[in-house]
Design brief:
- The radius of gyration is 17 Å and the shape is globular.
- It has a single domain, classed as Uracil-DNA Glycosylase, subunit E, CATH 3.40.470.
- The chain has 8 helices and 8 strands.
- A hairpin with a 2-residue loop joins β4 and β5.
- The strands form 2 sheets. Strands 1-3-2-6-8-7 form a 6-stranded mixed sheet, sandwiched between helices. A two-stranded antiparallel ribbon has the order 4-5.
- The chain is an alpha/beta fold.
Length: about 210
């Protein structure tokens, strides 16, 4: 009796081998690598140029992203757009994605409240992110927040201690340059408070360093 092929973890069985961005995006709606697909409206894959110099990785889609099917279209996305503009970064040089492709949430009445993805969800979705980075081959990966940093670097990160530094992660095609910064949702939460301007300026500075 032939040996049974070992089961591949998480999303791997749904990820097209050697796929370009379009083939990855086309395959992603069929993914059942973790349970999050069942409660989400749809998969939220990516946006931007498949030949971008910068890949920006967030945590997961939010409520609005889940409904519209595109990353960073809510309040955090507007802050990120403003920061990229102030930093002088051409949108054509940016590819946007998330570490986790489905929205994880708790229901409270008729509201869906963001719930941070667990380590199991990050691990399950990692084959998609790895395939995206292999297809785009960016100069720098910008991790927006600790969840993205954990997915890309494979370890727990400390944003306050490590942000703005250009780190390296060994990869199959050579070292990958990685920069950690805060997630723009953290800046959104400071809107209307004295700390907002400094937080926004720090995000802009980090994006400029990544682009430079």
């Amino acid at each position: 009796m032939p040996a049974r092929e070992p089961e591949r973890p998480g999303a791997q069985r749904w990820v097209p081998p050697e796929g370009d961005v379009e083939s990855l995006r086309s395959a992603a709606p069929g993914c059942r690598g973790c349970e999050l697909w069942a409660g989400a409206t749809q998969v939220v894959f990516s946006a931007g140029s498949p030949s971008a110099r910068l890949v920006l990785v967030g945590e997961q889609p939010g409520d609005r992203e889940d409904r519209e099917g595109r990353p960073f279209v809510g309040p955090a996305g507007r802050v990120l757009d403003d920061a990229l503009q102030v930093a002088g970064i051409d949108p054509a040089d940016v590819y946007l994605t998330n570490a986790v492709k489905h929205f994880r949430f708790d229901e409270r009445g008729n509201r869906r409240i963001h719930k941070k993805p667990g380590v199991v969800h990050i691990a399950a979705c990692l084959p998609w992110l790895a395939a995206e980075l292999g297809a785009v081959r960016p100069d720098v990966v910008v991790c927006l927040g600790a969840t993205a940093g954990r997915a890309v670097l494979g370890r727990t990160v400390r944003i306050t201690a490590e942000r703005g530094e250009v780190l390296t992660r060994p990869g199959p095609d050579g070292d990958l340059r990685v920069l950690l910064t805060t997630h723009p949702s953290a800046v959104v939460r400071l809107r209307g408070r004295p700390e907002f301007e400094a937080a926004f300026a720090a995000l802009v500075a980090d994006l400029r360093r990544a682009a430079g």
